[in-house]
Specification:
Elements: H1 33-37, H2 40-56, H3 60-71, H4 75-95, H5 97-118, H6 121-134, H7 140-145, H8 162-171
Helix pairs in contact: 2-3, 2-4, 3-4, 5-6
C-alpha cells in the first residue's frame, strides 16, 4: 500500500523559551511548602515562638498543639516550626557549650557548699562524682591508664629454676 503525501511548505514560527517564565512549584506533599509560602518575618516569629515553648518545657506534642492552635495551622505544620526551632537550639547549644558547662560546674560547687553546711553527705558525694565525670574521670580512656600491668620474664635455659632447686634439696 502506498500513501501519497502532498508537498508541505515549511512554516516559520517565532518560539520563545518557556523555561524562564516558569515558577518552580514545590510538590504538594513537601512538608516545608507552607513555610516557604509565608513571609520570612512571620516564619521567623513562629519559629521563635516554638523555640520559646521548647525552653519552657513540655512535650513536643504539647508544644506543637499550642503552635497549631495559636497560628491556626495543621499539627504537621506546627511540627515543621518545632523542627526548625530544634535546629536553632542545636546551633545555640553547640556555640555556648563551654560557657554552659562552666555555669553548671559553678552551680554544682555552690550546691556542694550548701549541702556540706546542712550535713547532706550523700548529695555532696553525688555532686563530687558528677564533677569528676565532667572533668573526664571515669571515662574508658582514664580507666585504661589505671589498669594493672602484668610483667612476665622468662629465665634462660642455663639457669636452674626454683622448682629444680627445691627438688634437689629434698633429695639430699
Amino acid at each position: 500500500m502506498t500513501v501519497a503525501v502532498p508537498y508541505l511548505e515549511s512554516i516559520e514560527v517565532d518560539i520563545q523559551p518557556v523555561a524562564e517564565s516558569l515558577e518552580i512549584v514545590p510538590h504538594k506533599n513537601d512538608p516545608l511548602r507552607k513555610l516557604r509560602k509565608s513571609n520570612p518575618e512571620e516564619l521567623e516569629r513562629r519559629v521563635n515562638d516554638a523555640y520559646m515553648l521548647m525552653l519552657q518545657g513540655g512535650s513536643r506534642r504539647e508544644n506543637c498543639n499550642q503552635l497549631a492552635t495559636k497560628y491556626n495551622v495543621s499539627y504537621r505544620q506546627a511540627e515543621n516550626y518545632y523542627f526548625k526551632a530544634q535546629e536553632l537550639m542545636k546551633t545555640d547549644m553547640y556555640d555556648n557549650r563551654q560557657q554552659i558547662l562552666n555555669q553548671v560546674n559553678n552551680m554544682r560547687l555552690h550546691t556542694i557548699n550548701k549541702a556540706l553546711k546542712r550535713g547532706n553527705l550523700q548529695v555532696v558525694a553525688h555532686l563530687l562524682d558528677s564533677l569528676a565525670r565532667s572533668a573526664g574521670e571515669g571515662t574508658p580512656e582514664q580507666e585504661a591508664n589505671y589498669a594493672p600491668t602484668l610483667n612476665i620474664t622468662i629465665n634462660e635455659k642455663g639457669h636452674s629454676s626454683q622448682a629444680e632447686v627445691l627438688d634437689q634439696n629434698s633429695h639430699s
